[in-house]
């Protein structure tokens, strides 16, 4: 039986929780699904609109992907579906190529989701998930903040009913100057009232006065977007607001998502490949970070490669079901966890409820104002626009701070894909710069101990006949010449020097360039009658050195500990 369970869990990870599923978990998951659906319906339609697609595709993107993830994913509460950042990246990828909303644009969005799925799936199956995580957290954080700012600005056109562009800040300002005089004041008032409702109503509901009268308002607060949607539809219908220029979603087709392979050709695939790779990268980083946070809280296991496979299959299903790229949603995942979801079945229930909406209730959303969807996006995404991380990162690390600002200005001044690429490249350049500028210290013994510390930071014992050094970095071609220069300067300031001891405790790897540098240093010191010694060499480093000429020609010795080297080379000082 145990072998059968192991095979089932390998083929179908969901078997791990399905075999323990019970009535109590069913009730918790179903309740959670009803709460999440109150957010998912307006969000899904809004994010589809953000991607330049028909609102119904936002509902399609919330059906099969969630069911697939529930079967193969590892997080019990992660909510897969459309999110603002990925929708914006979808729009940025397709907008320069096709007319927004056209049939070819829609087909390209489906193909883009399919390609994201293929990339993610292959990386997961080949155990290459670690490659996507090489992007530094500051760059990702800066990218999300900058993208959120562009997303919020991009929705402003629906609040004023003019064709503003928001691929970058200069483009937005130019179009704002050109078209703002043509804005619809009634639409603006309607949109601003919606924003005020979504911003201030949660604060009113959470106040002590309200909660003391009606009790917990958590469910009502989470359902506010849906309440606003229903109220606005009623207002448009009964007050005939279309006559004063309030634009609505219009006719939405009903039915189950059409299942078909998206149209493709090799030229189109090559054109979309960079965008698909970017979206796969960001969707995995965002989804994994959310899943890891909930996994820690729920004390559940999480495998990054398995998550990559699950996300890949979810996007494949999105491409096959007339949807666009998806990933984990932070807001819906938090709501899902807080509302008591116990297993991924909560996501399955949410998908089934979305199916009912798609089949029978799409006509209800015909009179939904576009300004309401825009307000929903702005309120949900504006929480991410926070500049405190820039200040905190700059104080902690100037290099990471520079990478954040480069990414931010790249995104808001050029476009999100180019900005992200600039951020990634800058991260690796700064990483190489840091490696090429390692921390090197002359060290001495702290009296009464066997510990050695930097002579510029501590009161330590030293000897004029002995130079003790430590490099806090792996030795390679990037920093070998820096280390050699530091050693030469240190030696030149001490005419009584007889021994140089390099503490290798912080060196985990060494390349051929660094070994050749040590051979040169050994030969040059030998000419000055100064012996070179090494201490505390790690196993992998020793394996490399044994295949070199350094150990054969080393003028000094190799010591197990640095303290042992000091005692033997200068017993009058180090006892």
TrEMBL record:
Residues of the STAS domain: 456-569
Record-level GO BP terms: transmembrane transport
Keyword annotations from UniProtKB, A to Z: Membrane, Transmembrane, Transmembrane helix
Primary subcellular site in the record, as a coarse category: membrane
Membrane topology: Multi-pass membrane protein
Keyword set includes Membrane: yes
Residue stretches spanning the membrane: 30-50, 56-72, 79-98, 104-126, 138-159, 179-202, 223-241, 261-285, 306-324, 344-361, 368-385, 405-433
Any one annotated GO CC term: membrane
Localization of this protein: Membrane
Pfam families associated with the record: STAS (PF01740), Sulfate_transp (PF00916)
PANTHER family: SULFATE TRANSPORTER (PTHR11814)
Record NCBIfam families: sulP (TIGR00815)
The protein's name in its UniProt record: Sulfate permease, SulP family
